[in-house]
Amino acid sequence: MNSHDFHPTSLREYDIRGIIGETLGEADAYAIGRGFATLIRRSGGSRVSVGFDGRHSSPALEQALVKGVKAAGCHAVRIGLGPTPMLYYSVSALETDGAVMITGSHNPPNYNGFKMMLKERPFFGADIMALGAAAAKGDWDSGDGSEETVSILDRYVARLVEDFSGPAFRIGWDAGNGATGEALEKLVKLLPGEHHTLFTEIDGDFPNHHPDPTVESNLADLRALVAEKGLDFGIAFDGDGDRIGAIDGEGRVVWGDQLLSILIVPVLRALPGATIIADVKASQTLYDRVAELGGVPLMWKTGHSLIKAKMKDVDSPLAGEMSGHIFFKHRWYGFDDGLYSAVRLIEAVGSEGGSLTALKSAMPNVINTPEMRFECSEARKFEVVREVLARLKADGANVNDTDGARVNTPDGWWLLRASNTQDVLVARAEAQDAAALERLKAAIDAQLALSGVERVEAGH
User: Fold this and answer.
1) Can you say whether the dihedral through the CA atoms of 253, 256, 262, 263 is positive or negative?
2) Do 239 and 352 reside in the same domain of the chain?
3) What's the first-to-final CA gap in the chain, in angstroms?
4) Which of 19, 100, 438, 459 has the fewest CB atoms lying closer than 10 Å?
5) Which CATH number characterizes residue 403's domain?
6) What percent of the chain has pLDDT over 90?
7) Residue at 62 is within a domain
8) Could you tell me the CATH number of the domain that includes residue 331?
9) pTM
10) Domain boundary residue among 116, 151, 186?
11) Are 245 and 269 contained in the same domain?
């Protein structure tokens, strides 16, 4: 093939993603491989790491992608099945010039997609659009590339615990049949303490529950395990292993911003005055905690690629998102890694008194909504946010427009933003008490109504 048109819905802000056989297939994989390898060559490189997750469609997409990489004259380093962070790690460990991960992350089983990095830099937004435009014109290099297969799993797992100094806990783990399964089984053998694992068999049908630890119902099995065995806490991962979820010994969810509020303590002890980044969905209590510990809190846009780019800009050692993406530059490489975040959580809980349950109980008592999602078409979602911002500014509201509208009021704050990955508007609110939270939710409802959006929550 000499050129290729991608389905218009598949080129997303952070990755390329679609439904297998409908909006995404092997021809797309070949075009991505060829286009990405062309960029690698034109920037003076020649080696591309390629990995894939446990979805049924992933091996065929990987083969097509490697063909494309070779057709552009590059060398494909195939690292096989494993979590996305293992692929990110391979760029440093194997000295490749870029990487492509075939993964549907936490999407339903019939989806798949591609995440990319160029050297140590995230590849997103305008990069992805340019890849699509070059494919449509057939602006690709030709060559006779090569390939090799490298097993990196054991090296990656050993690196996770290379400088580990945490205590022995009794921990439950849930891999959700996602791509972390084999790595997790190897990791727990290297950690002190007692470890009980669930669903480490990699299975693209996700037969036990969906691998998205931010949805509370997906943590039911982990909760039951922690309760039954009286464990200290539980840790869960998403489908491709770049996000972490956790529950304490009482089964309470420790949300992404709460995990970050624990993880920052040893980092700010080691690096006083460092800038800590969190996304616009994070609690005000997190930003207050960073400041209280002598760090510089920075609120930034939601999205793993956007956060990684911002970390480079401001030289931040640690960042995190509500969704459980945690990014360590301190003692690590700056990418989001669920397994590494788990290792650091064990250390941090150990150094902060040894009980995740006590740390959770001591957190400021605010109440907030989970992430509320409202169906809104691709064409309309960003427009709605613009309308809301215009009305709020006209009304003199205290609004932060870093990413959507985050509005501070005497009751607390609320957020409305357009999802970059789905046809939904995302809202969240946080207040000191239930009555105040209801007032904030009413303010969101009012703004949605003014823009003609029905308050029908989208399914996860």
Assistant:
1) positive
2) yes
3) 37
4) 459
5) 3.30.310.50
6) 91
7) yes
8) 3.40.120.10
9) 0.94
10) 151
11) yes
Q: For 354-397, how does the pLDDT look when each residue is reduced to its tens digit (9 = 90+)? A: 999 999 999 998 999 988 999 998 889 999 999 999 999 999 99
Domain range enclosing 123: 16-151
**What are the helix (H) ranges across 411-456?**
434-450
Same domain, 183 and 121: no
**Sequence-ordered alpha helix ranges (H) in 271-303:** 284-292
214 and 356 in a single domain? The answer is yes
Q: At what angle do helices 181-190 and 338-351 cross, to 10 degrees?
A: 30
As for how many domains the chain has, the answer is 3
Round to whole Å and give the CA distance between 183 and 241. 10
Q: Which residues are catalytic?
A: 105
- The CA angle 89-246-341, to the nearest 5 degrees, is 25
Between β-strands 193-198 and 233-237, what pairing exists: parallel, antiparallel or unpaired? Answer: unpaired
CA-to-CA dists, residue 460 to 174, 315, 370, 416, angstroms:
19, 34, 12, 17
- With contact defined as beta carbons under 8 Å apart, do 419 and 381 qualify? yes
- Answer for the pair 67, 213: CB distance below 8 angstroms, yes or no: no
Residues found in the chain: 460
Taking only the tens place, the pLDDT of each residue in 210-264 is 999 999 999 999 999 999 999 999 999 999 999 999 999 999 999 999 999 999 9
Q: Do the beta carbons of residue 244 and residue 235 sit within 8 Å?
A: yes
Burial label, 150 (beta-carbon count in 10 A; 0-12, 13-18, 19+): middle
- Give the closest residue to 320 by CA, choosing from 246, 415, 249: 246
Residue 85 · residue 338 · CB < 8 Å: yes
Helix, strand, or coil (residue 296): strand
* 404 falls within a domain: yes
What is d(CA 162, CA 156) in angstroms, rounded to the nearest whole number? 10
Q: Which residues make Cβ contacts (< 8 Å) with residue 118, sequence separation at least 6?
A: 39, 40, 43, 97, 98, 127
